From TrEMBL:
This is Branched-chain-amino-acid aminotransferase. It comes from Halosegnis marinus. Belongs to the class-IV pyridoxal-phosphate-dependent aminotransferase family. GO terms for biological process: amino acid biosynthetic process; branched-chain amino acid biosynthetic process. GO terms for molecular function: branched-chain-amino-acid transaminase activity. The keyword Amino-acid biosynthesis applies. It holds the Pfam family Aminotran_4. It catalyses: L-isoleucine + 2-oxoglutarate = (S)-3-methyl-2-oxopentanoate + L-glutamate; L-leucine + 2-oxoglutarate = 4-methyl-2-oxopentanoate + L-glutamate; L-valine + 2-oxoglutarate = 3-methyl-2-oxobutanoate + L-glutamate. Acts on leucine, isoleucine and valine. Keywords: Amino-acid biosynthesis, Aminotransferase, Branched-chain amino acid biosynthesis, Pyridoxal phosphate, Transferase.
Amino acid sequence: MTAFEEMAEDGVIWQNGEFVDWDDATTHVLTHGLHYGTGIFEGVRAYDTEQGTAIFRWEEHLERFYQSGKPYDLDIEYSPEELTEATLETVRRNDLDSAYVRPIAYFGYHSLGVSPGDCPTDVVVAAWPWGAYLGEDALENGIDVMVSSWRKHASSQIPTNAKTTGLYVNSLLAGEEARRNGYAEAIVLNKEGNVAEGPGENIFMVRDGEIYTPGLSESILDGITRDTLITLAEQRGYEVHDDVSISRGELNTADELFFTGSAAEVTPIKRVDNVTIGEGTRGPVTEELQQAFFDLVERRTDDHDEWFTYV
């Protein structure tokens, strides 16, 4: 039984200001967002800690949620305080110690011209249990990835720093191409042919003890887990280059590579296009930062308590 099937039995979802049973949280088939991808969303993790269930960097995710709606004139009528309480109560009512939290807003049912016109903005918050995104084994032993033939859309074409529902068709194409070819995940290049990110992850490279990650000008999402790892690395004395271009060829000569993301957390990459990275195992820098990350989010340290919203 999947997490969704389990939640459907007695779970609830917050939809447009009220809690509804999981199976009743529906929308019309002629909803604007369904036809044109006109929605925005966030993916946030809540962790089971000794201090109770804690949502990691909720405020930063919520701020990005509102910012993502601005290019589309997607007016979210609920205040940050209202959405925060709705989210906390969603986790509570579903009795979740740890969770993946999904706020989403989209143009709803009214008309189906490309212009949303007077379509309402529907706002939903759901939460469910979700383990390691790419598998528990991946966190320790790493994954095989391929460089996708699909390119990342440029910021001159569509806002790349907004988490727009429709944009993830690009991610789906890249990810499914990789899986059809026997890989766990993809790496996507930007229109210039430089490394952008994964379908749902930012990417880091370690070389000669220093850390590199593509800059925002490379058409990447300004990931919140990305920012977390930069902070943790700098606190441990690493020099982090977070505004660089990384060529495809540099991937093959890296000492270590790893993905970051709210879903993927910190996942090592052991091979790219069947080329072994470093020793073909989780490298020492990746392991140190991964451990620091999980120590942080599971509150085995008191550091950065301001990053947590306790349920």
